[in-house]
């Protein structure tokens, strides 16, 4: 799957995150290569979304650095990282429910609009309509790709949950990111919707050339479409590698899958209680 998987696109080095006395992340390091689908898994509360927030700029790490395309972005705000090519979706839908699907997706292209003080007047006289049409064409391409043509003019808040997840993905794609961060893109979906979303993610990676960092609880999907997988547990990285390698890791099986057969009796009991 994917194309060139050798060039590091994202580098996370020794990232720790604290909220008062609570440690959400502790000394986490990893790289994501250009062209990969890289999944982050772990139990609830393991720090997965906190890590995405450190990458996207919603959180600033207490310690450590985040580099994107070789540039230190640790101190950059989310909009500056978006300008560099980082897009994301959210665990909880962040759509404008009162706006149409088309307008929601157009919001994702706002940073691509021309804004030049010196040529502004001339631009608005001669080029605004052309640019709007160009952006509309781009949005329609995304709508066709995600197979939501039939709801393009519907109000986003009236759609089913699965369709709203597609619209949020469409808005993130509209940013034209090099790296897209997906926070539980298949949560709350039925089997058919999950299969469709997995196909869209694969196509984004293979045909659109987007590098993907994904949080997902469906282990079947993770193992089927990921190039590499990282496991977090209580904010610490406990494994990082190929899907089959990670799945075979005893520490992962105990921490994430709850397999305790090979543990001493006392440890097994405590694991079951946890």
From TrEMBL:
GO terms for cellular component: plasma membrane. Residues 10-259 form the ABC transporter domain. GO terms for molecular function: ATP binding; ATP hydrolysis activity. Keywords: ATP-binding, Nucleotide-binding, Transport. Pfam families: ABC_tran (PF00005), BCA_ABC_TP_C (PF12399). The keyword Nucleotide-binding applies. This is ABC transporter ATP-binding protein. It comes from Elstera cyanobacteriorum. The lineage of its organism: Bacteria, Pseudomonadati, Pseudomonadota, Alphaproteobacteria, Rhodospirillales.
């Amino acid at each position: 799957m994917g194309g060139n998987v050798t060039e590091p696109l994202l580098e996370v080095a020794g990232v720790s995150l604290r909220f008062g006395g609570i440690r959400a992340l502790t000394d986490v390091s990893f790289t994501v290569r250009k062209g990969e689908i890289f999944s982050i898994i772990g139990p609830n509360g393991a720090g997965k979304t906190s890590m995405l927030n450190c990458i996207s700029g919603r959180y600033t790490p207490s310690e450590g650095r985040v580099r994107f395309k070789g540039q230190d972005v640790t101190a950059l705000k989310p909009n500056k990282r978006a300008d560099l090519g980082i897009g994301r979706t959210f665990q909880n839908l962040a759509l404008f429910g009162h706006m149409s699907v088309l307008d929601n997706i157009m919001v994702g292209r706002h940073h691509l609009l021309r804004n030049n003080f010196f040529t502004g007047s001339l631009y608005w006289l001669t080029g605004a309509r052309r640019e709007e049409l160009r952006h509309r064409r781009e949005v329609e391409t995304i709508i066709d790709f995600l197979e939501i043509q039939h709801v393009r003019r519907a109000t986003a808040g009236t759609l089913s949950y699965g369709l709203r997840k597609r619209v949020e993905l469409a808005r993130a794609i509209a940013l034209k990111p090099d790296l897209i961060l997906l926070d539980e893109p298949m949560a709350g979906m039925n089997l058919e919707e999950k299969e469709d979303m997995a196909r869209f993610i694969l196509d984004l990676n293979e045909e659109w050339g987007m590098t993907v960092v994904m949080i997902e609880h469906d282990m079947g999907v993770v193992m089927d479409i990921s190039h590499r997988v990282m496991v977090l547990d209580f904010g610490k990285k406990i494994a990082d590698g190929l899907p089959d390698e990670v799945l075979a890791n005893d520490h992962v099986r105990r921490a994430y899958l709850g397999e305790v057969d090979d543990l001493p009796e006392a440890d097994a009991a405590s694991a079951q209680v946890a």
